[in-house]
Specification:
Elements: E1 4-6, H1 7-14, H2 18-26, E2 36-38, H3 39-45, H4 48-51, H5 53-76, H6 80-119, H7 124-142
Antiparallel strand pairs: 1-2
């Protein structure tokens, strides 16, 4: 027992209908555990395979490589529509975040003006508290 290929690959290599190969498997002429058939057994049933052994093995390898790269591409790169939907969602999220940032910036500016106005009072304790709040706020904004 040598190299094994999937039933679908064997059908492509032989250039036959899948039903023909399935009949051989069903009749017990060609074992196919887990959907894989042995190339040596295929050669016995279809001697023309032996004529182009290196070509056939190249085709098997090409089919495997192509299938693998297609599978990797489909799992790693989503299709155009999915990317467009994700981009739309990200743009919406970005717009919301920008609006919230603008709102918070306006709130901080208003608070700063209010604290400046409170700083102009005659009460030294209030000026000290306002100065401490200003230092705290400035330290938080610089982080």
């Amino acid at each position: 027992m040598g190299q094994k290929v999937a039933v679908a690959t064997a059908v492509r290599l032989l250039g036959i209908k899948r039903a023909e190969l399935q009949r051989l498997i069903h009749d017990g002429e060609l074992p196919a555990p887990e959907g894989m058939v042995d190339i040596d057994l295929l050669r016995q049933l279809y001697p023309r395979l032996a004529l182009n052994e290196s070509l056939m093995l190249e085709r098997v390898q090409l089919i495997k490589t192509t299938a693998f790269s297609r599978r990797v591409r489909s799992t790693l790169t989503p299709d155009h529509d999915a990317l467009e939907i994700q981009l739309g969602k990200r743009n919406s999220e970005l717009s919301l975040e920008r609006a919230m940032a603008k709102k918070y910036r306006e709130l901080i500016d208003a608070l700063s003006r209010k604290l400046d106005a409170m700083q102009d009072c005659d009460d030294p304790e209030q000026r000290r508290v306002v100065a401490e709040i200003n230092r705290w706020l400035l330290a938080r904004l610089e982080k």
